[in-house]
Design goal:
single chain, mainly alpha, Methane Monooxygenase Hydroxylase, Chain G, domain 1
Length: 295
């Protein structure tokens, strides 16, 4: 006599004997069951998609200021709020990548850096959305933005500090910082950068990294003997990609600004596009770029 594998007579109630074998067939597990016996499909009253994501609060944060309303102001607000959410995620990933280097978990640091790369490419492409707004559309509400400016983005500055471009003078130029924002920037200025973590990793492997000359010498050694340094080399390349994508965003951003307002001053008081052009050549890891000259 044969027995069906894992099938129950669908005409019988659950828990009843099946096939005359004298064996009770228990209730089938529902989708989402775990070892604890939870049935996810029956717990909707406890948590919903909207309550988990706090959508009511989130979708109430887009508050255009101009009267009469300007159609593209909502787009402008939405894009920049999305940027800040992604900045928050990047800080989360890059901080964890730095911390993973300390115990030598290079595989984890690389995974997190590569995730950051995907987000950074998204941030570059997001500029395309803003460029669907014409200069005339922007001018309908631009004057209402002053003295607010993207220059005042605390999280963007945190990303630069964490990546290695620390500049305390920027903090003094910020207007109306909250205590929490001041504390965040002060913490980023005081704590190690991604580059600091990588240099510590080099030294933990017996490679000198006290001066720029020593660092360059060690980088050349890593690059020329990838078999012996099969985790240090790709990690350095991941850092360079992070640097490259940050530069790509800066270059793409200044193009967008010029397309929208030409060489007008920024709403926050900066010179606008001329100031942004000066930031384009910024590099977090110049020694990784110089390394190419020695290979």
């Amino acid at each position: 006599m044969t027995r069906s594998a894992g099938r129950r007579n669908m005409t019988e109630p659950e828990g009843r004997s099946s096939g005359g074998m004298g064996r009770r067939v228990g209730p089938r597990r529902r989708a989402g069951d775990t070892a604890t016996g939870r049935s996810f499909g029956e717990e909707g009253g406890r948590l919903t998609y909207g309550s988990y994501l706090r959508l009511a609060e989130l979708l109430a944060q887009q508050q255009p200021q101009v009267i009469p309303p300007a159609h593209d102001e909502l787009l402008f607000i939405t894009v920049h709020q999305a940027y800040e959410l992604w900045f928050k995620q990047l800080l989360h990933e890059l901080t964890a990548a730095r911390d993973a280097m300390t115990p030598g978990e290079t595989w984890r640091a690389r995974q997190l850096l590569q995730r950051a790369h995907v987000i950074e490419r998204l941030l570059v492409s997001q500029i395309d959305v803003l460029e669907t707004m014409t200069p005339q559309d922007f001018l309908e509400f631009r004057s209402a933005l002053a003295p607010a400016s993207g220059f005042q983005s605390v999280q963007f500055r945190e990303l630069e500090f964490l990546s290695g471009a620390k500049d305390p003078h920027f903090v003094g130029r910020f207007r109306a910082l909250t205590d929490a924002e001041q504390a965040s920037l002060a913490r980023r200025l005081a704590e190690p950068t991604l580059w600091d973590a990588y240099l510590d990793l080099l030294m933990s492997r017996g490679l000198p990294a006290a001066t720029d000359d020593q660092i360059l010498e060690s980088l050349v050694a890593v690059a020329r003997d990838r078999a012996s340094h099969d985790d240090l080399w790709p990690l350095a390349e991941d850092l360079l990609t992070h640097d490259e994508l940050a530069g790509l965003w800066r270059a793409r951003h200044v193009q967008m600004v010029e397309r929208q307002i030409g060489t007008k001053s920024g709403t926050g008081g900066s010179t606008g596009a001329p100031y942004l052009h000066k930031r384009v050549p910024l590099r977090y890891y110049p020694l990784l770029w110089e390394l190419r000259d020695w290979l």
